[in-house]
Write a structure and sequence with these properties.
51% of the residues lie in helices and 6% in strands. The chain has 345 residues and is mostly helical. The structure holds adenosine-5'-tetraphosphate. Adenosine-5'-tetraphosphate binds next to helix 1.
Length: 345
């Protein structure tokens, strides 16, 4: 795509989202939310943070529970530091322009591009014939979520890197095929940073920490109280060796590497600093130190979450206000795409 225009000169905007498929956890926080807040507080960005309920229905779900799951995710965003007066917080399904642009992008993306997406393979499992079509085109809707705001930057965890590449491919293809030499859409940059970009399960260092893991002990939820956090860290899977003195010694020790990475992400220290302090010591010494750090860091978030979630009227007000603001930015972009693609009216 050498003739793709890359000279996009629109405003610097940030968009990201999470699925309301369960309680948000430490992986969601360290991989994404922490960076959402940093970008918001930087002040140079116009930030849009949505709860992606349209993505949540790509897998079996309970319709009766979905509205509260959206409120819960919004409360977790706010408890983590996303400020509804500085950032736009909303439910994806409340802004129809996402779906409108997604259809156009479904006709821009190529089947072969989607067939390479590893998340579909992971989530569809062995019986992909029975997976929803929505699960297959999930990354196309994600591209529409981003580009309907012409977002230039997307803070996400490492697992989303492939989807962000697809988003760039869709933007480039649209620009090339329909842009008449103009960069209609930006080639969005992922913001993937820090030792928390890939937090692994506490029960299996080879799997990522996930909302949908059947074991609650595999993750630290953002509403876990201090005792629960300490208990989960105490029960975390480890190997029998003491911690090494240097990072090289963490190779082939996924559980040890994960716990040291979490400690690093929570304290801002490097893994090397942590191993200089704890190298040679067993997990009997390291786990209580990690639990103390985790409780100190996360207790204010979980306290604030539990306070916010009791006031659903206020959460609904924030979500309605956010949807209005988001729609005001998104609909003109969807209308521009409609016109460019040649739709009537
Ligand atoms: N373990 C993780 N480490 C770092 N970042 C993570 N993210 C998720 N898990 C980790 C980041 O959180 C954001 C929201 O993800 P999502 O809600 O869209 O769904 P997901 O990536 O599929 O997360 P889960 O927890 O695994 O949800 P389920 O179980 O519903 O599939 C993204 O930025 C993601 O990178």
């Amino acid at each position: 795509m050498s003739d793709t225009p890359t000279d996009y000169s629109g405003p610097q905007r940030v968009l990201s989202g999470m699925q309301p498929t369960g309680q948000l956890h430490l992986g969601n926080y360290l991989g994404a939310l922490k960076n959402w807040v940093a970008l918001q507080d930087d002040g140079a960005w116009d930030c849009f943070y949505c709860v992606v309920d349209m993505h949540a229905i790509t897998m079996p779900h309970d319709p009766a529970k979905l509205p509260d799951a959206v409120r819960s995710a919004a409360a977790a965003y706010i408890a983590s530091g996303v400020d509804p007066e500085k950032s736009t917080i909303f439910a994806q399904s409340a802004v129809p322009a996402h779906a409108e642009l997604a259809w156009i992008f479904n006709c821009v993306a190529r089947l072969g591009w989607l067939e390479r997406m590893t998340q579909f393979k992971d989530k569809a499992g062995k019986d992909k014939e029975r997976a929803s079509v929505g699960l297959f085109t999930y990354p196309v809707l994600q591209a529409a979520d981003i580009l309907v705001y012409k977002a230039t930057h997307v803070p996400v965890g490492e697992d989303q890197k492939q989807h962000l590449e697809l988003c760039r491919d869709i933007a480039a293809r649209f620009n090339r095929d329909y842009g008449k030499g103009e960069a209609v859409f930006p080639l969005t940059e992922p913001v993937i940073q820090g030792p928390g970009a890939r937090v692994m399960s506490l029960r299996d260092g080879a799997s990522k920490m996930s909302k949908s893991d059947v074991s609650d002990n595999s993750r630290i939820n953002l509403d876990d109280d201090a005792d629960t956090i300490a208990r989960k860290i105490k029960k975390a899977k480890t190997d029998p060796e003491p911690l090494p003195d240097s990072e090289d010694g963490l190779a082939d020790r996924p559980e040890a590497s994960n716990l040291v990475g979490i400690y690093a992400a929570l304290t801002g220290k490097t893994k090397a600093d942590i191993l200089a302090e704890f190298g040679g010591q067993g997990f009997g010494a390291f786990k209580p130190a990690l639990a103390e750090v985790a409780v100190e860091y996360l207790a204010p978030i979980s306290d604030e979450y539990r306070r916010l979630i009791t006031d659903t009227t206020e959460i609904d007000r924030i979500l309605r206000q956010g949807a209005e603001r988001a729609q005001a930015v998104a609909q003109p972009v969807a209308d521009e795409a409609r016109k460019i693609i040649g739709f009537w009216g």
